[in-house]
Design a protein that fits this description.
Helices cover 34% and strands 26% of the residues. It has seven helices and twelve strands. The strands form four sheets. Strands 4-5-1-12 form a four-stranded mixed β-sheet. It has a three-stranded antiparallel β-sheet with strand order 6-11-10. Bound molecules: coenzyme A. Coenzyme A binds at residues 45, 48, 74-77, 88-92, 108, 152, 156, 159, 161-162.
Length: 242
Amino acid sequence: MIEIEALEITGPIPAETLRRLLRIVDAERRGIVERFRFPEDAQRSLLADILARAVIARRLRRPAADIVFIREPGRKPRLARAGNFDFNLSHAGRWVICVSGFTPVGVDVERIGGLGWEDAKSTLSTKEQERLDPSRVPEWETDLALSWTIKESYLKALGEGWSVLPSELTVSAADEREIRLFRSGRLVRDAFFGAYALDAEHCLAVCALAAPPPEAVTVRTLEDVEIVCREEFFDDTPYENR
Ligand SMILES: CC(C)(COP(=O)(O)OP(=O)(O)OC[C@H]1O[C@@H](n2cnc3c(N)ncnc32)[C@H](O)[C@@H]1OP(=O)(O)O)[C@@H](O)C(=O)NCCC(=O)NCCS
């Protein structure tokens, strides 16, 4: 079963909570978090790791402390010893999302708007450019966000990064449950999509290979995910010393 879990950042996170969360993650993530210039980016990166640990601990019945992420430059982060279980993360604005399942999955959340039509055009296929009308704001911005997140969720499910130009992909969506993707004009048959309205400012899309994603997103609080992790981390020992 594929699950989508969303963590909403509803306000500033107290420094003490952040310090506690930093002790849960491994040294590599701590380094990544500490190198961010903007605190919002650092928080999203940290919370993505915490959310992933909480999801994986629950789904694989594995202590959060035993979860080892394998991160290689340009490649999809994966888990050691996880069989066909897959997960994927995305974060933007006030949202951090984790999709997981026993088939390859990908997720993308983006803020809607903020891109001018000229820049947007370069990410759209010819068909999409014909369909979107730049004089209709904010409709075209919402359509662009849907198109972009679907494309990125597909590439993230494959784990390829941007090995394909976004303009080589065309998204056609009759509605949020009937999304189809064309790659160089050919229908992609083995990928299933879902798009979700998180709020008025963000667009979320999920791709799963071989099985359709669920209809709903489960929204978690920071407390929910921290509890799952804290049960394994009550001793306050940094990750690498355990
Ligand atoms: C995957 C990618 C498309 C996501 O970019 P983004 O929209 O900025 O960020 P998102 O928030 O949606 O996703 C980030 C998460 O995707 C995951 N991710 C990273 N690389 C991934 C890949 N190749 N496939 C799938 N997921 C990937 C990570 O978990 C990352 O979060 P984390 O770093 O906090 O763990 C982008 O990082 C990418 O293209 N990476 C591949 C490398 C590459 O082609 N680099 C180009 C250098 S110019």
